[in-house]
Design a protein that fits this description.
The chain is of the alpha/beta class. The protein contains 14 helices and 8 strands. Strand 5, helix 8 and strand 6 form a beta-alpha-beta unit. The radius of gyration is 19 Å and the shape is globular.
Length: about 300
């Protein structure tokens, strides 16, 4: 499967272990990544608050670049914040032909030959795993089942709401996909209070204490539920839950030691890659130091 690949800004900056893990996992899943190296930031919703047309123009440019990738079946991202922000932009662009024409006219002045045509399919890796590869095929590719690994799913905000914009319905229960993928990889899903709540990152510059309290509360809830780790489809969630975890521990006034894995890292472990290949040592809370890998994950490929 060939996809126009939008890694986003954060995976190539603050969380390079995510970008590297996706590159390592893709061939094991039969995915050919064609990186959109010329694409700009999605704006993460912030630009749209001040200038929606600027945000839409930036994202229309990314969409147009994706549509130029010959043979690509869709555009794929590995950041649920990008998914949410781009879905909002796409809703405006696809819903108004005159507006899209105006945005394309702006694009033509800066990038001759670029034009976005309504209807691009843009999917987060999580959606692609379930809807394009399929859970049965994913199970077939597992060589090291995550036996006895207790995983707490953490969706974050942008990939589960609003339902209408993200096409979450009875036919596509995308707010259950993370649980399904964990189970397909052989792991045990842990239910806890923070699964669908905000990680706190969006308010970190406005009210850091409240942001850290949100993150610390979710981490503590997962620990109380006896999760071995959390898995996230969003690098911004990873920043607040892993990078800020020592500070969050002070705010909630209790020790925290909860590893937080990127989705491609969890996939990589089940597909036979070693922790070093997935840069697990780059995390603030080292998964290899907290999880009993000998007992929680099958130590050798089946």
């Amino acid at each position: 499967m060939k996809v126009a690949y939008w890694p986003g800004c954060v995976s190539r900056g603050f969380t390079p272990e995510l970008h590297g893990s996706m590159a390592a996992v893709a061939p094991l899943l039969g995915i050919e990544l064609v990186p959109l190296d010329r694409a700009s930031c999605c704006g993460a919703g912030v630009i749209a608050e001040h200038n929606p047309e600027l945000a839409d123009t930036l994202n229309a440019r990314t969409f147009a670049l994706a549509q130029q990738v010959e043979g690509a079946s869709l555009m794929m991202n590995i950041c649920s914040t990008c998914q949410g922000a781009q879905s909002e932009c796409q809703e405006r662009l696809d819903g108004d032909d005159d507006y899209r024409a105006r945005v394309n006219a702006t694009l033509a002045r800066s990038d001759p030959g670029l034009s976005y045509e309504a209807g691009l399919t843009n999917k987060n890796l999580l959606w692609l795993l379930v809807e394009e590869i399929g859970l049965e095929e994913l199970k077939r590719r597992v060589v090291r089942p995550l036996t006895n690994l207790r995983v707490g799913p953490f969706y974050g905000c942008y990939i589960v709401r609003p339902h209408d914009r993200l096409a979450i319905d009875d036919e596509h229960p995308r707010d259950r996909y993370l649980q399904w993928v964990i189970e397909a990889l052989g792991g045990t899903v842990i239910d806890y209070a923070g699964t669908y709540k905000c990680c706190g990152f969006p308010i970190v510059t406005m009210n850091k204490k409240a942001s850290l309290k949100q993150a610390g509360t979710h981490l503590a809830d997962a620990m109380d539920a006896e999760a071995d780790c959390l898995v996230v489809p969003c690098p911004l969630c990873h920043l607040n839950l892993d990078l800020q975890q020592p500070l969050a521990a002070r705010v909630v006034d209790r020790p925290l030691s909860m590893p937080v894995l990127h989705l491609p890292q969890l996939l990589g472990l089940a597909l036979g890659l070693e922790p070093k290949q997935l840069s697990l040592s780059k995390h603030v809370v080292k998964p290899t130091a907290v999880i009993d890998w000998a007992g929680a994950v099958v130590g050798a490929p089946a």
